[in-house]
Amino acid sequence: MSKLLNTLIEDARVWQGHRQTRTTQPAEPTGYQALDNQLGGLGWPRGALSECLLDAPGIGELQLVLPLMQRLSHAGKTVFWLNPPHTPYAPALARDGVNLDQIVMIRTEDSGDLLWTLENCLRSPVTGLVLAWPGKLAARDIRRLQLAAEAGSNVCVLFRSRRLADQSSPAALRLELEAGEHQDLRIKVLKRRGSWPGQRCTLAMGRRADLPVTESNRVVQGPWSASAP
Questions:
Q1: Residue in 223, 227, 229, 210 with CA at minimum distance from that of residue 96
Q2: Residue 126: count of CB within 10 angstroms of its CB
Q3: Along the 229 residues of the chain, how does pLDDT read in single tens digits?
Q4: Helix 111-123 and helix 139-152, axial crossing angle in degrees, nearest 10
Q5: Among 57, 171, 74, 81, which Cα is nearest to 131's?
């Protein structure tokens, strides 16, 4: 029992009110230093769920995961898109350095199919990243997906409604996203392992040092329609 408790504390799964705990869980850098600084110098947790909560698609949430898509797709890992609200515009993704051979988009018919597909994508050894727009999820469904993410040790980002910000969730990381001025994205950390919530940062999307401002960068922010040229 003592060994198990020590393991849980080291992984920051037991909250200790008197101090913060630096998690030993593996993570992938977000590609945005300002955000990584607010996440304990880590980034997107691997083997765990992350939630991005927003009012509507197209505020820069895809630009937020673009550096991770670039890195994992060129490492030969598959990036799954499940039920995106709009059809991805492949030429823009290619221009921004994403290996399209590693991108797989899946649309499911109902919530049961979505959960089954999500779970299997998360458990697959070929998976590097799962991006999903699941709609309504029960707490037991999120716990089920969390177990699948742990088994696959990959990154999963769920894009969900900002109205869920006040609800509890077993996800390891929860970010509240809000559109700012001049393509800025305001981020509030609602939850992360091993630390108090409430950290904030603002990212100037498309103006990272290694990502010049171009028309394709603006397109990658989405949303894109099925009839995009």
A1: 210
A2: 13
A3: 555 544 444 444 444 444 444 556 789 999 999 999 999 888 999 999 999 999 999 899 999 999 999 999 999 999 999 999 988 889 999 999 999 999 999 999 888 999 999 999 999 999 999 999 998 888 889 999 999 999 999 999 999 999 999 988 889 999 999 998 878 999 999 999 876 778 999 998 754 434 433 433 443 444 444 444 3
A4: 20
A5: 81
Q: Which of 76, 61, 71 is nearest to 96 (CA)?
A: 71
| 83: containing domain | 25-211
What token pair was written down for 195? 């630390």
Residue 52's CATH number:
3.40.50.300
Give a yes or no: residue 224 inside a domain: no
